[in-house]
Amino acid sequence: MGCPDWPKCFGEWIPPTSESELPEEYRETYLEKRAKKVNKFSNVLSTLGMEESASSLKNDPSVYEEEKFNAQKTWTEYVNRLFGFLAGNFMLAAFFWLLFAYRKSKLIWVCGFNLVLMAFQAWFGSIVVATNLVPWTITVHMLLALLIIAIQIFVLVVLSNRSDLFNRFVLPKWMKLMLWFIFGITFYQMFLGTQVRESVDLLIKQGHAQNSWTEMIGMPFYIHRSFSWLVLILLSVLFWINEQKNAYLPIRLAFVVLAIELLSGVLLSHFEMPGLIRTSHLLFASVLFGILWMFLLRTRASTA
Length: 304
Known about the structure:
Blueprint: H1 26-47, H2 51-58, H3 71-101, H4 107-130, H5 135-162, E1 169-171, H6 173-205, H7 213-217, H8 219-244, H9 249-270, H10 275-297, E2 299-301
Parallel strand pairs: 1-2
């Protein structure tokens, strides 16, 4: 919540570095703007038939709490928006390049859809800000980001196959099915992980001690932890077979990334680690998602 407004930050394209640069009643001003935006979004939800979500959003007191200025959070959010702006413009440039390079290709429609999705993601980011990080909006924002990444990887793989930049991997059918299973669990794990993270953030705000978090979160945490062990076991089997025969680099990378990601999860679960570890946990989960997805797209099952 470093920037209370969107797309500008405190009404400026270059955000402030100290509270003295802000108007005296900036919190009241942006709270009023937030309330108007929340009301509009709630009306949209009602129109879509999501009456319960709309009512819950309007009556959630945490939505109407304006945080104090924090320069570190402000510039973290500002840099996040800059990267989003760059990503969107590069995606736009790639779309126009495809129009000239592959005029009759279906990839143009795929990239066009992803471009629209990117624009929607930017708008939804403003909703995440306006609703003061209401948990379910964070999850939707994260899943949209994964979908955008998945489509981008798909386009890259298709283009690389056309230009023979990469060879396709040939795996036994059972191994490819296992990879799809691991990929599916990994995707579900990321969805479940955002739910756990949201619960942890809420418990921190309420002042609960870390040793009580797992019990208070309950089943989502235990499922998340159990599935992590399942992914580790399955990927370890694939890693061992891979080292004995094919030694495909993506499987090696996936195993190493998973090990780091699980280590960060253990640190989060049992030790009071700084926010950087939380970010690392999500980052390596996203990298694992990308590696598995690209490997699957470049893999075909053998007929043997």
